[in-house]
Amino acid sequence: MSTVGTIESIWRYPVKSMRGENLAEAFVAFAGLMGDRVYSFVTDKGNPGFPWFTARDTESLLLYTPRYKQASATLKPKNLEAAQGMAPGINPLTPTIQDFSVEVETPEGKSYSLDDEAFLEHLQTLSQDPTLRVHFTQKSQYDCRPLSLFSVQLQELLSDQLAVEIDKRRFRANFYVSWNEDMPPLYENELLGKRLKIGDQLEVNVLERDPRCKMITLDPETSEANPDIIKHLASTHEGYAGVYAAVLVEGMVKAGDTIELLD
Fold this sequence. Notes:
The chain has four helices and 16 strands. By secondary structure, it is of the alpha+beta class.
């Protein structure tokens, strides 16, 4: 077992395709970071295999800021210590839908409860889609895998290659990681199929590289698109940036936690 890096920052996204929030710590379950993408907007239009309405459809959705009204209740289960003290490690109690209640601030500074009919009408007008509706599930509504990792070294490499500062938030990862100085910028690609231990308990298996889409072209501050970013990834990195992982052992993670290679 060797230490290969640290957690630079932890991010989750209460509402799929809206702004994320930077956390000091969070519980990571088999379904991913607790409270990550538990809300989304779905539509009857388009591909039924991908029913979500996202910033791919309306870029300004990226500028909406969701906040949990009871934020502390969403960071870890109330019975976590008791559950983890029971062999072989009992799955703890997930917070209730009331704990996960959200308010959203629009780019204009107006706040709504996510379940407010007036907010849904606002989005239906914005999208010109009367079928748009809120979807909630305590299981994260990720596109492909429950956990995503992206290194600050790759952020720096892309900034150098494109000669423009690349905001890491474009990549909407759960864990931004900093590899040891002696590791290559694309070290995460060497971890495919490997197990990592993060902090005291969490263990993950790195599954595959993360194929990128239009979302990374959108500036997280303005939602303006820069297609050069995805064109560059396609021509020099095969369209991938970062990796996906699956959770093997649940646990709390804190910013600054070490990342250890188990095999």
